[in-house]
Amino acid sequence: MTISQARQGNSTTSVLGRRLGAELLRLRTTAGLTQPQAAKVLSASTAKIAKMEGGWVPVRDPDIRALCELYGVNDPGIVGSLLELARVDRERRKAKGWWDEYTIPGVMQEYIALESAATTIKAWQPAFIPGLLQTPDYVRALRGNPAAQATKSPGSDEEFVAARLARRRRLSEEPLLSLRLVIYEAALRNFPGGAATSEGQINELMRMADLPNLSLRIFPFSAGTHPGLHGSFNILSFATPGAMDVVYVEAPFAERWVEGGEATAAYDELFERIAERSLDERESVSFLHNLRKGL
Fold first, then answer.
1. Where in the chain is the domain with CATH 3.30.870?
2. Delimiting residues of CATH 1.10.260.40 domain(s) in the chain
3. Label partner for 168 (CA 20 to 30 A): which of 14, 65, 102, 131?
């Protein structure tokens, strides 16, 4: 779903709400039941079921349990994942986070809010250093690049740098985010700002690679081509990885959320294929070390 599709009039859905609603819809249709039948078990209107399945309203735990019982869903893992997703969605809808202190566009603000709630993120980046690992000089150079002006977000450069650095709290504050990154070699050969930013950024990558909750791998040119070269994507998990994942896909002038189970599974499979063909973690650090020596 594109970001613009998340609004109807003055109402706004949430990414997690849509993901939860899609799963409730899938379970209902698999059970061969209608919205009026689901509404009856909740003593609610059909309109409420439609809003729940569309992600327009937060969903209460008792409603999830009642619907799962009606749909014949008894697997504790499935029910637990639905409850966890609903809990995180409710918290995200009402929460005020550090990001509210900065001028951040709605699309990225929604992503940062979800990043702050995620337990695991898998990210593939073919063109740039991933945001959570960017140095201030790299961010400034990226913001100052003429090619970036058309898609540049509002706010001053220093405010943007401060917001980017604030995101790193997820890597050092409890509960720690588990982060798996794969970076294409091209992103390490074409630094914005050139030599002025490259050494510091490579040093930072090597330092961050030592974090116990971070896995950093490099996809070298020698590994050939693959479908991932079409663009970057981030897979966010909020409970057990794979259970209720959402995928953030970014491209020039457009961002979208992939919220369907089969579609998110396809992205997860693609990420694992990319990671499998990449250098392992030790080899990746050696690659960075050699790259730094050649500067």
1. 103-293
2. 3-94
3. 14
- Give the architecture-level CATH label for domain 3-94: Orthogonal Bundle (1.10)
Residue (of 250, 269, 211, 205) closest to 110 by Cα position: 250
Q: Which fold has domain 103-293?
A: Endonuclease; Chain A (3.30.870)
Q: What is the pTM of this model?
A: 0.79
CA distance 163 to 104: 8
Residues facing residue 219 across a β-bridge: 184
d(C-alpha 280, C-alpha 58), whole Å: 41
Residue 14 CA to residue 6 CA, distance in Å, equals: 7
Average pLDDT value for residue range 47-64: 94
Radius of gyration of the chain measured on its C-alpha atoms: 21
Sign of CA dihedral 227, 229, 231, 233: positive
How far is residue 209's CA from residue 96's CA, in Å, rounded to a whole number? 31
> Using CA atoms, how far apart are residues 110 and 12, in angstroms rounded to an integer?
12
**pLDDT per position as a tens digit, 254-266:** 678 887 678 888 9
69: which 2 tokens?
């019982």
In the chain, the amino acid numbered 181 is L
